[in-house]
Amino acid sequence: xxxxxxSIRPFIGAKDFELSRSFYRDLGFHENVITPDMSVxxxxxxxxxLQDAYVKDWVDNTMIFLEVDDxxxxxxxxxxxNLTAKYRDAKLTPIxxxxxxxECFLHDPSxxxxxxxxxxxx
Length: 122
Fold this sequence. Notes:
Helices cover 25% and strands 38% of the residues. The chain contains four helices and eight strands; from the N terminus they run βαβββαβααβββ. It has helices at residues 17-26, 56-60, 71-81, 83-86; strands spanning 11-12, 30-35, 38-43, 46-51, 63-67, 91-97, 101-107, 113-119. The strands form two sheets. A four-stranded mixed beta sheet has the order 1-4-3-2, covered by helices on one side. It has a four-stranded mixed beta sheet with strand order 5-8-7-6, covered by helices on one side. The radius of gyration is 15 Å and the shape is globular. The N and C termini lie far apart (30 Å).
C-alpha cells in the first residue's frame, strides 16, 4: 500500500463528559467541538477524540502513550497543574525508569491511563 499517513486519532470515552473536557483543556490540549457529544483535542499535531460515551470495561482498559522530549520537565509541569486536587479521580504516578527509557503516568477522571514517556537515545 502506498499512502501518506497524516495522523492517528484514538477515540476515548468519558464517564462525565463535561468534567473530562475541562480536564483535557487544563492539561493543555486545545478543544474543537465536533458535536454536543464529541470533541477532538489537539496538541502539536497530535489528536484524540473524546466521546460522551462510557463503557467501564473499555475505559478501564484504555491506555495512551504520549512521547515527550523531557519526562522530568513534563512531570514537574504535571505537578504544577494540581490536577489531582481539582479532579477527584485523577491520579499521578511518578517517573519510572526502564531499559527503554522513562515514563510517568496519569489517570484521567474516567480512568483512562496516560503514559508520558521519553525513549533513551541509542
